[in-house]
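Q: For a teaching session next week I want to show students how multiple molecules come together into a single three-dimensional assembly. I've collected the sequence lines for a complex. Could you give me the predicted structure tokens for the whole thing so I can convert them for display?
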Amino acid sequence: MSDTHAQTVAFVRETEIPEAAPPYAATGPVKWMRENLFATPANALLTVVAAYAIYLILAPTLPWILNGVWTANSLAECREILQGATGACFAVLTERWPQLLFGFKYPSELYWRPSLAFVLLFVAVAPVLFFDLPRKLLIFTGLFPFIAYYLIWGGTIFVPILALVGCLGGYAVYQRFVTGSFAAGFFGGIAAALLIWYIGGLLIPDGASENAMLTPVPSRDLGGFMLNMMLGVTCVSLSIPIGIALALGRQSSMPLIKVVCVVFIEFIRGVPLITLLFVASVMLAYFFPPDSTVDLFLRVVIMITMFSAAYIAEVIRGGLAALPKGQYEAADSLGLDYPQAMRLIILPQALKISIPGIVNVAVGLFKDTVLVSVISMFDLLGMIRGPILASTEWNGVYWELLGFASLLFFVVCYGISQYSQWLERRLATDHR
Amino acid sequence: MKKSVILGALTVAGLSAGAAAAGTLDDVKARGKLNCGVTTGLVGFAAPDANGEWKGFDVAVCRAIAAAVLNDPTAVEFVPTTGKTRFTALASGEIDVLARNTTWTFSRDVDLKFTFVGVNYYDGQGFMVPKALGVSSAKDLDGATVCIQTGTTTELNLADFFRANNISYEPVPIETNAEAQQQYLAGACDVYTTDASGLAATRATFEAPGDHVLLPEIISKEPLGPLVRHGDDEWGDVVRWTLNALITAEELGVTSANVNEMAANTGNPEVARLLGTEGTLGDMLGLDAEWSKRAIAAGGNYGEVFAKNIGEETPIGLARGLNAQWTDGGLIYSPPFR
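A: Of course. Below is the structure for the complete assembly, covering every listed component.
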């Protein structure tokens, strides 16, 4: 059979020819460059211009960074070491490192406490951020605020325990009454917590703080990047639930709640954050007698939380408005009551839509925490602008310090942004 | 102006709230700590060092008061204030005394209801130029470009000075001292003008300070001093006479090194009265007899404090100038201890 046409063609290839390498210009880096950098003459021109711009930026900065001095005791000493050569004076970062992170008054032998709280923070937020983790970890998340408070401020352990007991008591009362009426449960819970705190406050012996296991540290001794982190984490985590409540309140059909929420949101959004901070630091001092003021840190937290809650409320309202009306009607037709409908149908969808907006507010808020430096709190920027630049040794070191501050903020903000993108991909259930 | 009206209103509100409080001196003694308002950081005048300990010319005043009243120069709670929060902090009672290079002006004294207890540094607006410019007097600056911080009194002083001397200039507006340094060094302006002490501190940070000179003209009066609230004269007296004790000590040659020796055996009755071995000046203030001795021992007399923090031996390198004792042709002058 196979011999039938054996003589009709001169040559039949019996083996496959070996694969030839692709043409030089269609492979490897050359191909990539041709496709991505020099596809058209216009693209080639832009590439050259961009490369030149990058060169212009790197030519002075690279030697400046690589030639940097890391050990010196003052700017003058840095200059002596450099002998007129270009070079950064990073020695200011090494010498003032603890001050940049913890402020200048936090006792140095206690640095391990905020550092430990910082490490625990990751354990605590992990189950909130990554919901594949075991749900039992949420118990630790619930305990974390009290542990962190105890670690950072120290003092008697009764205070965080009392706060925890108050919260648990309030929650128990809420659970007991919420089946009857939400309002009864809600206000009953708050009243129970306040009652426990008041009675417990009387029970804590005077002077318990002085001989406590952890030395107490007053709020005005906090500072540095620690202060930014504390303000950022506290305010973001408080303002999201408050923002959700405000957004729902604004859509409520009950006129009183609606008016209260609208007035709150519009008022807070209409006032600059820095004004609120001045009110917190300066004006409130007039309303309290000198010996019984509310802690400055707490005042600032309240103000920043109110501010960002108003913004987050508007972001979430956008999410709620984007849901088709059918979703609300579907919830009603299933016979769900209002809390169930919100919890099971509306909010999961609305929040998913709102993620980019919420992250936007959170990143902005975190950066806004440096504004506290104008009310003489020594956050990272306050430390740089105040004590460090005003010391005789380091007066005149601007680029290194401010560059370092931007780097710290960039790392955190970029991390938040990457997480939110992961979250969006993870929650993507539609087929766009 | 608007700002001062608002601050004034706040101050009045604060005063009416604080009027019921007891005397500040008793409060400080009961508290065991002096709340002293300082700047958030100004080279040479007040700044925490690498160990977080406050150092500086204004800080020394706070420490002297604490030593006189509480017998412990470290019993001071330093409350950092910004230019915006300083007056409200004092008016609301958050701080007992403000030692924050604050210029003594009519409106602050009268309208904001504060009592300036004295002057610990006579400052004034000056000019800095590169040596290469070859200028020896501000009157030669016709047509110069001048770096000037906007929205400050220095801007108005500058305009007045050039108009009065009938010469022209071109302002280069800048926001902060840091920006001014960069602009000046980059040659964006021929002249940089601000308070003379600030110019000296700025020049000290340059790579080649010798290439720049401060011109001899001082075109404004900026008397800086500690201040307290109106209406508590006992406390005002304590602060005023603590400052005066430091000044008198320099005049009489009492230093932190020899204060004990001088107190024990002095033939000079004025020194004896100052140090409490003669007379009852301490009692009159509501303090003990050795109050001024402790204040002087805390950080030294006025001259020592000046030399240690901002004097010619320091990187800031300020000459005594107007701040020399009156016996040396300066303005530093204390009423007699008698």
